[in-house]
Structure formats: C-alpha cells, structure tokens
Amino acid sequence: MPKSSLDIQIKTLPHLPGVYQYFDKDNRLIYVGKAKDIKKRVSSYFNKHHDYGKTRVLVKNIVSVKHIVVETENDALLLENNLIKKYKPKYNVLLKDDKSYPWICIKKERFPRVFPTRRVIKDGSEYFGPYTSMKTVKTLLGLIKGLYQLRTCNYDLSEAKIESGKYKVCLEYHLGNCKGPCEGYETEEEYQSNIIAIREILKGNFKDSLQQFRIQMRKHAEAMQFEEAQKIKEKLEVLENYQAKSTIVNPKISNVDVFSIVSDEGYAYVNFLQLSYGSIIRSHTLELKKKLEETDTQLLALAITEIRQRFNSNSKEIYVPFPVDLGADIKITVPKLGDKKSILDLSIRNAKYYRMDKLKQIKIVDPDRHANRIMAQMKADLLLSEEPRHIECFDNSNIQGTNPVAACVVFKDGKPSKKDYRHFNIKTVVGPDDFASMEEVVYRRYKRLLDEDQPLPQLIIIDGGKGQLSSALKSLDVLGLRGTIAIIGIAKRLEELFYPDDPIPLYLDKKSETLKVIQHLRNEAHRFGIEHHRNRRSKGALTTELENISGVGEQTIVDLMKQFKTVKRIANAKLDELEAVVGVSRARKVYNYYHKE
C-alpha cells in the first residue's frame, strides 16, 4: 500500500527547533505550533490516542504539514506568536486570548511617550520587540525613566495649546519625573535629544547611557545617598548582563524581504522570509524546475518577481545572497556580516531543509526521478561524457600475501546490484602485489564481458591511487577499451579522485552526493572483498590438515566439523565416536591418520 503524502511529509521533517503549520483539504492554515524538535512534536499528534475531542478533530482535518526552521526555541516562540496573530488559525484557541508578547512603543507625537504595549498599531509610532518577558521590558523602561525625565500624560501638547496655558504641571513634575513640557518648561529639541538616546538603548547600544548611569551612581555615592546609588547599581548590572536579543533579528530591520536560493542539476528552491518590526511574519519556499541551463541569478530574479506578486509585497529593500537586477525602485542588499547576514543565513537554511525534505519524499514516491537527478549530478561533477548508469568498482584484499582475492561490485542507477557482484581469486600473481593483482582482475572481468557480449559499464572506479589506476589502464589497453569506458581511482586518505594522464587529483565537496555514491561503492567493494578473503582464510585454517587424509572428501570434513567443532577434538576422538558420524571405513582412515604409532 503506497504511503500517503502526509505520512511522507512527517517522515522527512527535521529534528530541529522551529514552527510547524497544519493545513486542511482546502489548504487553509488551521493550526500553528512551536517545538524544540519539529519531527518528534508533529509525529506525536499521529502516534498516540488523544483524550481531548478538539485535538482528535484537528488531527482528522490535517492534510499537509509545513515547517519553518529557526535557530533557538526562543525564536520559535516569537515566530509562533507572529504567525498566529497574523493568520488566526482555527484551532489555536488557547492563543487567541489577550495573552501576547510585549513591545515598547515610542508614540508618534510632538513630545513622544515611551510605554509598554501588547498591541501594535500602524499609526507611524515606533515599536521595539517583541520581548519574551515583561520583566525585561520593565527593566529597560525603569532604566530609561531613571536616566530621562519623560511625560506620562496623554495630553495633546501642540504648540498652540501650550502657549495658551491650557495645561498645568502635575505631580510627576513635582516628583522630578517630568520636566514640564506641558507648560513650556522643556523645549521640543531637548525632549527629542532624549528620545534619540532612548532609541539607541532599545536597539542595544548602551554605551552612552551606561556612561551617564555611572555618573549618576557616583553622584549619589558622593552625596552619601547610598540607597539610591545601590538601586542604580542594580539596574546597571542588569543592563550590562542584558546581551541576548529578544527579537528574531534586529528590530530596526523592518519591512524587508529576504530571498535565498539552493539548486541542483534539475531544480532550484527559493526561500522567502518577510520581516516586520524585526520578526518573521511569513515564510515560503518555491520549487522551480529547470528547463534549460538557467543560472541561479536568473532563477532568483524570476522567483522574486513571482513571490512578491503572489504575496502582494511592497517592501522597498530586499536581502539576497548575490546581486540581482530588479529595477531602480527596489534596494538590493547583499549582507556580509551582522544581523542582516544572520537572517540571510536563516533563509538559506530553510531553503536547504526544504530541498532535503523534497529529495527524501521523491526518493520514496518517485525513485526514477531521484535516480535521474543523481546520475545527472555525477555526470557533471566527474566531467563524464555520459551518465554513469552502470558503475563497477574494484578492490584487492590480502593479508601478508596469503589468499589474495579481489572484488568487483556493481551499481546501477546509483544503487547496488548485488546479483552482479563478482569475486576473483588471484591466479597469476605471487605475493602481495596489489598492482599486478589489479591488472589481472580488470583484464579477466572485461575479457569475459567482451567474450559473452555483455554490456560494459560507463564508469570504472579503482580503489587506490595512481599505481592501481595505471595497472587497470594496462588491461584496458590490451583489450582495446581505453577511451571507451571512463575510469578513475580514489585514494583512501584524502578522497582524491585520479584521472588517467592527469597528475592533479580532483577533490569533491565532502557533502557532495557524487562523493557519497563513490564512497558507497568503495565501501561495498571493500566489505565484499574482505568477506570472501576471510572465508578463504577460515576454510584453509580449519580444513588443510583433514584434506591431507587420503580417502576423506569435503562432505566427510563438513560432517566431522559439525560434530566435533575443532580439528583437535577430531584428532582425540575415539574410533567408535568417529564411526557414529562418518561410518566405519572413513572413521578408520581418520583414526589411523592420528594414531600412526
């Protein structure tokens, strides 16, 4: 029975922190959740019985799963909240209440107020956050209040109303918490200079504020006001230890689109992250099937245009991994370091994990497409003239020159074809000569394929360096196959790939799928050869002495070994014990051999 699309999606989820999203049959987002391990959390919905009816109904309605990978659990918490607030999924009942994450607002007005809020209103005000706890917000606001005297009233402090004397200073002025801009005791320029300093604090730049805070602490200490100095010192310590960011990215990164691309021979995957007030509010990955030899630059430009139209994005700035031409109206930024580079790296990670998930699913439901992609990749990586649909790999095995053997393993469409594996006992070589042994087995293998008119491989891999490769080439020359079959050698230590008549080896990326296939071939050849070599050594060690007995054949030896386990026990056995196993005649021959005196 074929696996459902949902089963495959769950099977290929990553063991990483992030946010998962459930969609129903109409492709509507019905639930958003966060997890330290996405795969474990999502799998738990389908692997156990749920006591609550709501959860059972939710699971019943899930048709597809999507996920967004983030750096930490804290990022997942904030991202989950942003997505729930934006899309209001049907089954996120517990998160639809008044509980939300706090922000710090600098209100857009003539003498801006600075206050905490859980609501973001698009009225031109500045919002910093969201923060993971109100304690952090209160600490920052307490610091700001201790440094700067700001108004807390909600009066309309227009120039005309202040000049008319409409307002009177309140208790906050008399307590020293406000300088009285309502009566014109503080100018707008003085007040705005304080707001500029507060913005720096909220962005994480505490240098100037810390210096002023230390000055205040010293003044209190000099005035013998030790309690006040201690309070400021405690806030100073909290501020100095406050290093972890509360947002997914820097809060000044707002209204920005982030795009990244990951591609292979046949497909490209473009990830899109939309940022608002320093947080991710949307993530989407688009899969593009290549028709011609399009470059990543062409594909990324095409995908950006499509995605921005699809999601009606009007951001004026875009972060990308390399320059793309999108017209003069859009600012293109290629981040190199800092917060901008961090968010671009996060987008690249999401594109990579999306591609990995797709490839795992394709391997399950469409193995032909998976094989075609691997073959096309190997052809390009190894600079071959045709796809290596049929690959053969050779390895020699001997220990101190005893029982020399060789193995040939066969891969077809990138997978082992074990029925085509072959063992070779070295016949013409004396002693541990790997080069001569390789020359012999390559000649014997392809001489037989030619004699029997069997199909030849597109690629031969020799487990060894230049010496073994040269020996194999001698046999191909004798058979007239040089140039007909591509051949390379792989050195064990550095995974160097050697080509005929080329002294400079090729080094593939350690994570390359081509290298993984070659390593699989090499490991299979080694395993297969060692297995045969051990069998020969074991058989020789156990049966050599028994084979010297005249009139005792292979079956008699097998029967005796099954019964007595070792040659020593056979030698010490009584005549009647031997007769019970192999009969009178053969028992007498074995007994007499060990009791000649």
From TrEMBL:
Could you tell me which residue ranges the UvrC family homology region profile domain spans?
262-476
**Gene Ontology molecular function terms on file:** DNA binding; excinuclease ABC activity
Entries under Pfam families matching the protein: GIY-YIG, HHH_5, UvrC_RNaseH, UvrC_RNaseH_dom
List GO BP terms, alphabetically. nucleotide-excision repair; SOS response
Keywords for this protein: Cytoplasm, DNA damage, DNA excision, DNA repair, Excision nuclease, SOS response
Please give the Gene3D superfamilies that the UniProt record associates with this protein: 5' to 3' exonuclease, C-terminal subdomain, GIY-YIG endonuclease, UvrC, RNAse H endonuclease domain
Subcellular location(s): the record lists: Cytoplasm
The organism's superkingdom is given as Bacteria
PROSITE patterns in the record: GIY_YIG, UVRC
Q: Which residues form the GIY-YIG domain?
A: 15-93
**InterPro entries cross-referenced by the UniProt entry:** GIY-YIG_endonuc, GIY-YIG_endonuc_sf, GIY-YIG_UvrC_Cho, RuvA_2-like, UVR_dom_sf, UvrABC_protein_C, UvrC, UvrC_RNase_H_dom
**Can you list the GO cellular component terms from the UniProt entry?**
cytoplasm; excinuclease repair complex
The family classification in the record reads:
Belongs to the UvrC family.
Q: What does this protein do?
A: The UvrABC repair system catalyzes the recognition and processing of DNA lesions. UvrC both incises the 5' and 3' sides of the lesion. The N-terminal half is responsible for the 3' incision and the C-terminal half is responsible for the 5' incision.
Q: Which NCBIfam families match?
A: uvrC
* Alphabetical list of HAMAP family matching this protein: UvrC
How does it associate, per the subunit comment?
Interacts with UvrB in an incision complex.
Protein name, entry field:
UvrABC system protein C
Taxonomy of origin reads:
Bacteria, Pseudomonadati, Bacteroidota, Flavobacteriia, Flavobacteriales
